[in-house]
Amino acid sequence: MSDIPGIVITGASGRMGQMLIKSVLASDKCRLVGALVRDGHDWQGLDIGVAMGGQPVDVPVTSDPLEAFAKAQAVIDFTTPAATVDFAGLAAQARAVHVIGTTGLTDNDLKAINAAARHAVIVRAGNMSLGVNLLVKLTKQVAAALDEDFDIEVIESHHNQKVDAPSGTALMLGEAAAEGRGVSLNDVSDSGRNGITGARKKGDIGFSAIRGGDIVGEHDVLFAGHGERIVLRHMATDRALFAGGAVKAALWGQDKRPGEYDMLDVLGL
C-alpha cells in the first residue's frame, strides 16, 4: 500500500471533509494518511473512522498540519481562505500536491498561493466537477462568438449555509465569459444591484446569487439578446462528484512540475 499516494484531508469534520475522506477510503489508487481539524476540536485524537461513526481506519485526527503533511503526497483542502493560505506554504514545504477547493479567496490570498506554487504542485478550482469545467469551456466559446448585444448573467443557487457570494464556480464562469470577450472581469463585473441602479451597462457581466434550503449547486449562464436567449446550465445533486474530482486532481498532480493548475488541466480540456 505504501507505493500509492498518501492523502491528508483538511477540515475533516466538515460536510465536504467527510465526503472527501469517504472517497479516499473507497479508492484503490490512494490511501488516507491524515485527517486535520482545528485545535481543540472534539474529534482531536480520535480515529477518524470512529469519529465519523464507523469502524476504525487507523488514522488519528490531528490539529498539527506539519505532522500530517510530512506523511503525505497530497493535501485536499476545502476550508477557509486564511487556513488555505497557511496550508499552501506548509504543503509546499512538504512537496505535497495541494488541491484547493476553498472559495472566497482574495487577491492577496491568491498571490500567497501563487508563491507557494513555485515550489510544489497546486491544483486550484472553484469547482471540481467534470460537468462544470465543460460548462466553463463552453461559456468561453459562446462569449467569444457573441457580441455585446448579448447581455451575460451568471445565476447561481446554493444551500442556506454558504457564506460567500458569488460562488467560486460563478466567478469561474464569469472569468471564462470575460476571457471569451477579451476583457478583464474586474472591469465589467456587476454583482451589487440594489435600489435605483439605472439601465444595465452594455458589456457588463452580471451575477445573481440565490441561497436556500439544501441546494448542492446550480449554475446558469444566460446570454440574453434581442428576441432570443441562450442558457447554459449545470445542476449538481450529489457532493460526491466534487470529492471524486478532488481525488482525481490529487492523483493527477503526482508527476507534474511545480506550478498552479486548474481542473481544465486535470481533465485535459
UniProtKB/TrEMBL annotation:
| Binding, NADP(+) | 38
Which residues does NAD(+) bind? 11-16, 101-103, 125-128
Dihydrodipicolinate reductase C-terminal domain location: 131-267
* Entry-linked InterPro entries: DapB_C, DapB_N, DapB_N_CS, DHDPR_bac, NAD(P)-bd_dom_sf
Metabolic or biological pathway: Amino-acid biosynthesis; L-lysine biosynthesis via DAP pathway; (S)-tetrahydrodipicolinate from L-aspartate: step 4/4
Q: Name the UniProt key words of this record, in alphabetical order.
A: Amino-acid biosynthesis, Cytoplasm, Diaminopimelate biosynthesis, Lysine biosynthesis, NAD, NADP, Oxidoreductase
Question: Dihydrodipicolinate reductase N-terminal domain: from which residue to which, for each copy?
Answer: 7-128
Residues forming the catalytic site: 158, 162
What molecular function terms (GO) are annotated for this protein? Answer: 4-hydroxy-tetrahydrodipicolinate reductase
Give the signal peptide range.
none
* The organism's place on the tree of life at top rank: Bacteria
Q: Provide the primary localization.
A: cytoplasm
Q: Reaction catalysed? A: (S)-2,3,4,5-tetrahydrodipicolinate + NADP(+) + H2O = (2S,4S)-4-hydroxy-2,3,4,5-tetrahydrodipicolinate + NADPH + H(+); (S)-2,3,4,5-tetrahydrodipicolinate + NAD(+) + H2O = (2S,4S)-4-hydroxy-2,3,4,5-tetrahydrodipicolinate + NADH + H(+)
Location in the cell reads: Cytoplasm
Q: What is its EC number?
A: 1.17.1.8
Q: Which residues are recorded as binding (S)-2,3,4,5-tetrahydrodipicolinate? A: 159, 168-169
How it assembles, according to the record, is: Homotetramer.
Q: Which family does it belong to?
A: Belongs to the DapB family.
**Which function does this protein serve?**
Catalyzes the conversion of 4-hydroxy-tetrahydrodipicolinate (HTPA) to tetrahydrodipicolinate.
Q: What is this protein called?
A: 4-hydroxy-tetrahydrodipicolinate reductase
Q: What is the lineage of its organism?
A: Bacteria, Pseudomonadati, Pseudomonadota, Alphaproteobacteria, Rhodobacterales
> Gene name?
dapB
